[in-house]
From TrEMBL:
The gene is pepN. Its EC number is 3.4.11.2. GO terms for molecular function: alanyl aminopeptidase activity. Coiled coil: none annotated. Keywords: Aminopeptidase, Hydrolase, Metal-binding, Metalloprotease, Protease, Zinc. Belongs to the peptidase M1 family. It is an enzyme of class 3 (hydrolase). Its cofactor is Zn(2+). Pfam families: DUF3458, DUF3458_C, Peptidase_M1, Peptidase_M1_N. It comes from the Bacteria. It comes from Methylomonas subterranea. Residues 234-447 form the Peptidase M1 membrane alanine aminopeptidase domain. This is Aminopeptidase N. Residues 452-553 form the Peptidase M1 alanyl aminopeptidase Ig-like fold domain. Residues 558-880 form the Peptidase M1 alanyl aminopeptidase C-terminal domain. The lineage of its organism: Bacteria, Pseudomonadati, Pseudomonadota, Gammaproteobacteria, Methylococcales.
Amino acid sequence: MRDATPQTVFLKDYTPPEYLIDSVELSFDLDEQRTLVTSRLHMRRNPQSANQAVTLTLAGEELELVSIAIDGKPLAAGDFAISPESMLIHRVPQEQGFVLDIQNYINPKANTALEGLYLSGSMLCTQCEAQGFRKITWFLDRPDVMSRFKTTLRADKTDYPVLLSNGNKIASGELADGRHWVSWEDPFAKPCYLFALVAGQLECVADSFTTMSGRQIALEIFVEGHNVDKCSHAMQSLKNAMRWDEETYGLEYDLDLYMIVAVDHFNMGAMENKGLNVFNTKFVLARPDTATDSDYEHIEGVIGHEYFHNWSGNRVTCRDWFQLSLKEGFTVFRDQQFTGDRTSAAVKRIEDVNALRTRQFAEDAGPLAHPIRPEAYIEINNFYTLTVYEKGAEVVRMLHTLLGAKGFRKGCDLYFARHDGQAVTCEDFINAMEAANGVELTQFRRWYSQAGTPVVGVDQHFDAKTQQLRLILRQSCPATPNQPEKAPLHVPVKLGLLAPDGSPASIVFDGKTATEITLDLTESEQTFVFDKLAEAPVVSLLRGFSAPVNLDMPRSLEELAFLLRHDSDTFNRWEAGQQLAAKVIFALIEDLQNQRPLHLNALMAKAFHDLLAEEGDDLSYQALLLTLPDESYLAGQMRVIDVEAIHHAREFVKTTLAHDLRDDFERVYRIHHRDESGKFGADAIGRRRLKNACLSYLNQLESASSYALAKAQFEQARNMTDQVAALSAVVNSHHPDKADCLQNFYQQWQHEALVIDKWFALQASSHMPNTFATVQELMRHPAFDMHTPNRVRALIGAFSQANPLHFHAINGEGYRFLADQVLALNTLNPQIASRMVTGLAQWRRYDGKRQELMKQQLHRIVATEPLSKDVYEIASKSLA
Ligand code: 0A1
Ligand code: ZN
């Protein structure tokens, strides 16, 4: 909990560690409430450190000391001092290395924050990133201290038959009183944030993988007995990831064993601990009847992400936590490439950009904006952000675009060769890219230090006489906290030209001819001239979303419809449809605000009619083309967010399209409606997506036949994608059987926690009128539990982050509710509490009344004592 003034940590204050820990011998006498930790640290002074002080400061929190000795000699009370966050040893041997022995007790059961060693159900597990290891024992808990770990676990054999840690199992045996022990050794030096242990009654699903050099790796997934039938997809995903990293990056796995453990209680998605990943069950367990197609894809993506960390994160790690994007931005980029290769690259890119623009752009435009390499933090756990992860991945993607796939690979090869076994910085990554490609990326580096989303404005002039198109690009970036002035960035702008008939036009630029080029926008304003154009072309700009910027390029509805029909760039084709819909919706919002009657623009209906007549081969992509921009995406485009007008205008478009094109939606629904449960090929998934997109439109009709359609699909579905799509339709309508459907679904799935999470989330995000009352009722439901992060996210998270209409109710009940829950979580699980506060951070974007109501709740939170650093930092920065 918070001291009087929480300290800020600054990047500029970084200094190398004064001491090093070459190796560690840990042993654990495991017990739910009283685990004894025995630690032997082989330490020495760091020759790289300039500091000559003879004191040693170790981090440690919530630990009960039993004994401490240096080189076998117990320390006297006056030799050291313990504070709530550290231990200071006044004098340690300087000349040669020394051995520090510590014994301490910890209480896993009392650990509801889920960092350090904690209980998940009846299983003991650890989470050490970022600074959880200090809740296990006193240590130099910083990523630039890398040590070899040997770990022995002792525990009751009945309660904890499986005992796991990093590396290879080297010995095991029996003890008296029904206890047993297992020893593990990790041959690779690592920072303590990658340490892990797991103990429990677990079943093992085993397989193997033969690496490119012919080594056989044992693969083991550990789950509770009732989940053994939901591991095959995760296992296949792991093998796919291992092969992909060999083929794409030339990177091979290094240990002989790779273990994954799935736990019910986890603050994040998963964790890349060396050789022993710990996963949120959400990203492991899948069976066709319990997991949706999107769940299947996310599982493969997260399994890939953690696996790829073995190189980008573990073999080469971060020097300090300000460099977090070094491993996260890079690894997200790698997992995006992987999923793109495994599924539809077009769909994956659209999904990623959509998430970036709706969520990261909001972060970048608000009080919590920070560069992908932050310069200061109070609580590092608050910096596992969309900016560090998703914008970080965009920055790596821009390097890939600028250097080309081959050049990027050369840069990666050099980075891994230079820094294997080291803890390094983002600067080292760019240096390797430069050196391997003989280029200079001085200006590009600004992406690491500058926060905010740049705006790129466009002017174009076509001269029929000279047959030239002049394109004037301007860039600017709004001020962000502590960064009032911004310098121009190096923005790669991918471009194509379309002839008036929709065919690609040749690009003659700088004396060269191409069908697509990448412009280097480096100045605040720059003019690009294209030659030999007989007619004015239509410009397709920022193809593939080649840079994380806001493009300010006014276009007519006709031009957008043209691009939606003809653009050969799958991203920009989809984008044209989104812009078209957004433009139509914004016009309707104005009509609503001025009490004018609403009419749907005929061009929009025509565009959708054409889309529904199309027979494309990527049906998931077709489904995306039919999806209207999200309410939160639209909100991000408004100066003052009008939650209600956005909702009603968007609903009006959806309902009118459903009425006008009912036959088309029904026809496409029928074409693709069939039972392909258990099939996960692109075709089967695409058919489900397209069909369910149609269902969602038809559901707007609120008619006997639309009710029958949803109900029939709900009852007949034999896969979770179709079942949950149908239930969502029922929940988001006045369906007469809503209560029954919800009840039946609950009955059917009450023993599958991940499915019940969907049940909570669906109800919490419904736009139907009585949602807030339902949410309050669900808080009292026996299956709701504040100690389970997935459940909290499913109910409180979904309501506050995926239900703008009801969360932002003008009477302030949503805000009050959220603050109540934040304060309840503050003492229980600060990380989850602070994630929930972000629902209030965007208060400046709303009208005066809502601003006041949101601020009131933020003030209430900040005034609470005691307040965790996590919540304090987010709430106070939101108000600043
Ligand atoms: N490194 C993990 C994410 C992670 C971060 C922090 C955690 O606890 C505070 C847990 C997991 C990843 O990127 O997958
Ligand atoms: Zn990661």
